[in-house]
Amino acid sequence: MSMTHMSSTIKSDFKNAIWLILLVSMAACTPANLRVIKNPEMKNWDGKQGRYQNLFPPRYGYLEETEYDRIDFLKPHERQPHEYKILQDPRGDIDRTLGYDPLEYTLAPDLKLLQQPAHAVQITWLRHASFLIQLGEEHQILVDPVIEELDGMVGLLGKYTAIGTLYADSPLATRELPFQDSAGNSAPNKTNTVAISHDHYDHLNYNTLKKLPPETHYYIPLGLQREFPSRFNNVTAMDWYTRDQLGDLTITFVPANHRSGRSLYERDQNLWGGWLFEWKGYRVYFAGDTGYSELFKDIRQRYGEMDVCLMPITAWFQRHWHFAPEDAVQAAEDLGCKSFIPWGWGTWIMSFEHILEPPRRLQYAWDQMQPENMELRILKMGETFTLD
């Protein structure tokens, strides 16, 4: 055999080995019972850039300020200079957790109420973007559950840096969720569902998911199924403006103004969005991370007014991707929300603002804007909102 032929054979074998490794890896990352629901009318893939794109242009840009940004929402003793090594505010830094005691903003959950729901709609805020939504006695939905340590290197780095340091534990441990009994078996006569808005580390947490019962049904954004581990058996990946029926529960994946990616080399390869849960005339909307645009008027036009809106109110230095509190109120008005529940604050330092500024700025915006026919419910972590 000539050296040239041998070299060609080695290269061919090497390529085949690489392809075999890739195929095995893809198979290992593809759930066995996978459904993919696509919207043939959706034109949200940018072929030139090779990524998904938002449907509506954002109203605001990066670090864009309004009159609300010129209002000081902190008390004098909460404003002290501080230097951060990561996520430095170019306008000057302060200690972003000074004066914050998470115990003041946490309640012990009513475990009996969670195990035996007594209301048509029960919504418990766990922390950050994590909610337990219970509809009657049969449907239980965990939205963006991040109860355990953040995944991978992000979780490790969070222990050693101020940015990413956990400031509020979940008031409910994963084992205490009503998804399972004390023996770890699935709760009888209940539909256990998890809905993920996008793949960022503070919304998708495999450390939590792997502790849930194997019968749990996962709803994820389109594209994420390519990397969703095969250990999760029951998975539905959905495109924007698509619906699925789970008994008498209708689940709809709607757009948001945001982006996706869990590394510097993977941007917008999976969708991002919000979730709409419709059950027996009730509509519960979870926005996911999003900036403000005309999107919310479009959602209302398609699906009608919302009974409950779960809205983010933090990290508005990236205002094209994240609501400022007043943006969340405007979006809620666009959606026709009857009850407004904010989230995102009080768990980690995720942005330049002080950890207590979001709820204060929200209350100020609410008083200024005075939305009609809408109630504001600022929950404590562990607190349950009910609706009958």
Description of the structure:
The chain has helices at residues 3-28, 111-115, 152-160, 206-209, 295-303, 325-335, 357-369, and strands spanning 33-37, 45-46, 51-52, 121-127, 130-135, 139-143, 191-195, 217-221, 234-238, 242-246, 249-254, 274-279, 282-286, 308-312, 339-343, 375-376, 384-387. It has 388 residues and is of the alpha/beta class. It has one domain: Ribonuclease Z/Hydroxyacylglutathione hydrolase-like (Metallo-beta-lactamase, Chain A, 4-Layer Sandwich). The strands form three sheets. An eight-stranded mixed sheet has the order 1-9-8-7-6-5-4-17, with no helix packed on it. A seven-stranded mixed sheet has the order 10-11-12-13-14-15-16, with helices on one face. A two-stranded antiparallel ribbon has the order 2-3. The longest helix has 26 residues, at 3-28. It is globular.
Question: Per CATH, which architecture?
Answer: 4-Layer Sandwich
Structural class: alpha/beta
Number of domains: 1
The ordered string of helix (H) and strand (E) elements is HEEEHEEEHEHEEEEEEHEHEHEE
Record the SSE blueprint.
Blueprint: H1 3-28, E1 33-37, E2 45-46, E3 51-52, H2 111-115, E4 121-127, E5 130-135, E6 139-143, H3 152-160, E7 191-195, H4 206-209, E8 217-221, E9 234-238, E10 242-246, E11 249-254, E12 274-279, E13 282-286, H5 295-303, E14 308-312, H6 325-335, E15 339-343, H7 357-369, E16 375-376, E17 384-387
Parallel strand pairs: 1-9, 6-7, 7-8, 8-9, 13-14, 14-15, 15-16
Antiparallel strand pairs: 2-3, 4-5, 4-17, 5-6, 10-11, 11-12, 12-13
